[in-house]
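New here. Your pick:
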Amino acid sequence: MVDPLQLQIRLELPLEVVRGEFVIGSLRVENHSSSSCRVSSRLNLLEGDVRLLLTGPGGVTRLVYGAYQPDTGLRQAELAPTEALESGLNLFYTSIGPTFSELGLYQVQVEYDASVTARGLTGPPVSLHVGEPAAPEAPLMELALNRDVTESITRMEIINPGVRKLLERLANEFPSRKEGVIAGWVLAASATGDPAALDSDLEGSFRGAGPLTLARWLSAIAPPVSTHGSRLRKRFLSFLEQADFPRTESERARQLIMGEPFRLSDGD
């Protein structure tokens, strides 16, 4: 049984984004008690254990779920005292479509069902300001706001033939941007070409950011419920083993991708 007082839920978001930017948060469940507890490890919006209370610039609050709801089995993890679970969280496309489509200030709270006996635990509100993209970013944001693009990324599959070219434009024209990297991952997850060439492309995309940042992006768009994302997760784990990252960073990234608890440190 989970005592809600044992748990803290932490959502981290960027303070400011531009309209159309892929918003990826970090969701963490922490055990600050003196005893262990078993909690749901389904830390995404797709499987029903996590929801958002979203208050938009106009002051209206809505309950937001994942863009689609697959039927999946329960997944749990045992959290020892001072341990936590973490996952990236895809917030840019949800049950209401593009989540942050209006300009202005948003307040976001997470509701989390830790277990059957600890449902609807609510984290503190987090602010996010959405601004207008600058002129150089406008073509990127126009592509990123395309509904077929955002749906393909959320489903981790090519939903129609036309969207492939849009994803290729994102990946090829903006390779150093989060949006371009993620578009490339979706193309790789659905590709049927030479495996060695595809793996080489993936490895190149993994070198554009730190391991924890990459792990948050990847866990957000390819959670365990995503069968098409399994290749990406496996390739990223292999990359972590070979890359010259500090061991502590690589291990935290691995735990995040695997949905394993980690020990909280003083910095947490």
